[in-house]
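Final report, results section. Input specification for complex C-07:
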Amino acid sequence: QQQVKQSPQSLIVQKGGISIINCAYENTAFDYFPWYQQFPGKGPALLIAIRPDVSEKKEGRFTISFNKSAKQFSLHIMDSQPGDSATYFCAASGSSNTGKLIFGQGTTLQVKP
Amino acid sequence: GAVVSQHPSWVICKSGTSVKIECRSLDFQATTMFWYRQFPKQSLMLMATSNEGSKATYEQGVEKDKFLINHASLTLSTLTVTSAHPEDSSFYICSASGGSRNYGYTFGSGTRLTVV
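Structure output:
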């Protein structure tokens, strides 16, 4: 019930294309859903986050779509650039787990020039 | 913005020795800090949660006597890997939260530990 399942494991997109990464959760007590970007040898950096009271949030080229009934959320990267090539993690937390972040398995994105 | 400094960024130590990793919140008070471990091409696995002035809460399967966590102030938490062995070699990452549910979590840059 604490799991967050992320797909796909890897993704190759052409420059200018749209990258889509999906996550699903089980615990309905989760109320905070962030996405992180991680480059090799670095810590994760917050990209964008959403709470379940909205269905979509957009920041620049990054958009989170949230489907509360389906317990799914996704990250869309518009106009993908080679500099976006990194590993992306979704995560979830809620008051029921004392604020701990539960991470998805990660998606390695490669944007080809 | 919120900044978390983690030091050292990499360390090599001999088997049997201990290594200390520091995690500092530079511009906010971190009431809660989290320590993660990440193996190559894998996700972050939470090791423990520490609240300032309290004993850390360890996740199942994490040896608390091997991974000592101290959170003595609102800006500093340390992770000490005691009697390190090659299997402890990993990427260790800390994260700090300001305590508000709206604050989010800020991650350090990680420490690459290699035990030889």
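The CA atoms of residues 34 and 100 of chain A lie 12 Å apart. The longest strand of chain A covers residues 19-25. This concludes the modelling results for the funded period.
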